[in-house]
Design a protein that fits this description.
This protein has about 260 residues and is mostly helical. The chain has 14 helices and no strands. The protein folds into 2 domains: about 70 residues, lambda repressor-like DNA-binding domains (434 Repressor (Amino-terminal Domain), Orthogonal Bundle), CATH 1.10.260.40; about 180 residues, no CATH class. The longest helix is centred in the last third of the chain and has 15 residues.
């Protein structure tokens, strides 16, 4: 089984890859240099440090919490877990739209009023969440994708076409992450594939091509839709379907790659 490196090791690699010194990161994150050095030496990062380091490195904070093996704070969870039934449908219809229409849909998502959180977000346990596969699947869960949603969305946005149950196997650590899986997961997560590979301990034999524009747009839309209530997500889903017009009869598998 592939072992995920410790957070200090991951952070050291990211600094080297980004050509950043400890002082550079500390300045960007508003931290003392000794705080960063302590993590690099193996100290478990605290919540405050991760919240500051994430934007300084261009990461979503929730992803660093998951990669570090720490509990995700409630304020970083999707607003409404019930919206998971609509999240994949929004993306699946959106990638079939022209670029201008996708931009309009994203603008609509961002412009909807922020509703109050009515209940906590409790993704179903998947087993070995500290395993690399569990970490990546958990990142997708925090994009409000169920296992079925993962199967549907990845099949349309990337070349990965797996059953919903297979994502449960990956999430529980019983199926190794492959270079193909890491590359496709990275596209939907909006993370550089090379960085996700190193952070999950997977070796890429070659530098992957940049994800297609539709996949990039899908990742952004999926992230922004996290802030929607179920009712809002359903509204956006119906809007995306209507924007497709007469063509909204199904989805092309791996659409961005066609």
């Amino acid at each position: 089984m592939t072992e995920r490196p410790g957070f200090g090791v991951m952070l050291a690699w990211l600094l080297e890859h980004r050509e950043l010194g400890v002082g550079d990161l500390a300045d960007r994150a508003g931290l003392a240099g000794d705080e960063v050095r302590a993590v690099l030496a193996g100290e478990i990062p605290g919540e405050g440090l991760l919240r500051r380091v994430a934007p300084a490195l261009g990461f979503r904070a929730v992803d660093l919490f998951i990669l570090s093996g720490l509990a995700v704070p409630d304020d970083m969870a999707p607003l409404d877990g019930a919206a998971e039934q609509w999240a994949p449908r929004i993306v699946m219809d959106a990638v079939h739209l022209p670029v201008a229409a996708r931009r309009e849909l994203l603008w609509i998502v961002r412009s909807l009023p922020q509703e109050m959180r009515l209940c906590g977000f409790a993704p179903r346990p998947l087993g070995l969440l500290v395993d690399p596969g569990g970490s990546v699947v958990r990142m997708l869960r925090y994009r409000n994708l169920s296992r079925t949603g993962m199967a549907q969305t990845l099949a349309v946005v990337t070349p990965t076409y797996l059953s919903a149950s297979t994502y449960g196997v990956i999430g529980s650590g019983r199926k190794e992450l492959t270079p193909r899986l890491v590359t496709d997961f990275a596209a939907l997560l909006g993370i550089d594939a090379r960085e996700l590979a190193v952070l999950t301990g997977v070796h890429l034999r070659e530098v992957p091509a940049p994800p297609p524009r539709a996949a990039v747009d899908a990742a952004v839309l999926l992230w922004e839709a996290r802030r929607l209530s179920a009712a809002q997500a359903r509204h956006v889903c119906e809007l995306a379907r209507s924007m497709r017009g007469d063509s909204a009869n199904g989805c092309v598998i791996n659409f961005p790659g066609t």
